[in-house]
From TrEMBL:
SMART domains found in the cross-reference section: HTH_MERR (SM00422)
Domain of life of the organism encoding this protein: Bacteria
Record-linked PROSITE patterns: HTH_MERR_1, HTH_MERR_2
Keyword DNA-binding: yes
SUPFAM superfamilies hit by this protein: Antibiotic binding domain of TipA-like multidrug resistance regulators (SSF89082), Putative DNA-binding domain (SSF46955)
Domain HTH merR-type: 1-71
UniProt name for this protein: MerR family transcriptional regulator
């Protein structure tokens, strides 16, 4: 039994473009092709794709996935055991974070102010208040900072909810491209980077391509920013920086 690339994409929840990319880089060659040259995937191919997607979900770069799967001494059962251990650890961490979010939601509903210990017990030492103070220290007095202060002063609670949802959506789309193995300098990734730049310009301050690439560098260099993006998807901070730079080069 064999399956077309479209059927496999539907089974696995990936795009046809992703499967073509995996074939092109040698990560997943289809087991056969029909008389018209179209890709056909067998059960062994589907098993390998499942392993690839497990490792991608765990944040492994494609080249490391290839090295792991192509190791002649590797035991398929050991792959599954390693993935199970890693996923179990991630589930535990996510459960802790979900419990903390639920606690925060309940406290807000009841108008209860959380202690610093309660607020940051899961998220480590990142302090939003201190971060805001640093932003002012670093950029206070600049035109961008003053413009951002003027705009955000008028935002309502509903404005913030809408803006946060839009920003999260951009991050999710970029993380999905990363998960699919789409290069950071691809048209798709650069287009999302451009939307990211325009979002900042529309909601906060005029964001030139130079300023945008500077933000991208900060996402990687500043461990607090990096941690935010790494929590969304391992490798996302670097991926976003590279896409933002590629977009600037394309536009300029």
């Amino acid at each position: 039994m064999s399956y077309s690339v479209g059927q496999v994409a539907a089974f696995a929840g990936v795009t046809v473009r992703t499967l073509h990319h995996y074939d092109e880089i040698g990560l997943l060659h289809p087991g056969e092709r029909n008389h018209a040259g179209h890709r056909r995937y067998g059960d062994d191919d589907l098993d390998r794709l499942q392993q690839i997607l497990f490792y991608r979900e765990l944040g492994f770069p494609l080249d490391e996935v290839a090295a792991l799967l192509d190791d002649p001494g590797a035991d398929p059962q050991e792959h599954l055991r390693r993935q199970h251990d890693l996923l179990t650890a991630r589930i535990g961490k996510l459960q802790d974070m979900a419990a903390a979010v639920a606690h925060a939601m309940e406290a807000r509903r009841m108008n209860v102010r959380l202690t610093p210990e309660e607020k940051f017990e899961v998220f480590g030492d990142f302090d939003p208040d201190a971060h805001a103070a640093e932003v002012e220290e670093r950029w206070g007095g600049t035109d961008a900072y003053e413009e951002s202060q003027r705009r955000t002063a008028a935002y309502t609670k509903e404005d913030w909810k809408r803006l946060t949802a839009e920003f999260d959506g951009l991050h999710r789309r970029m993380a999905e491209l990363l998960a699919e193995g789409v290069p950071a300098d691809s048209e798709a990734a650069m287009d999302v980077a451009e939307e990211h730049r325009q979002y900042i310009g529309r909601c906060y301050y005029a964001c030139s391509y130079e300023a945008h690439t500077g933000l991208g560098e900060m996402y990687v260099a500043d461990e607090r920013f990096a941690a935010i993006y790494e929590a969304i998807r391992p490798g996302l901070a670097v991926y976003m920086r590279d896409a933002m730079l590629a977009n600037a080069v394309r536009r300029l």
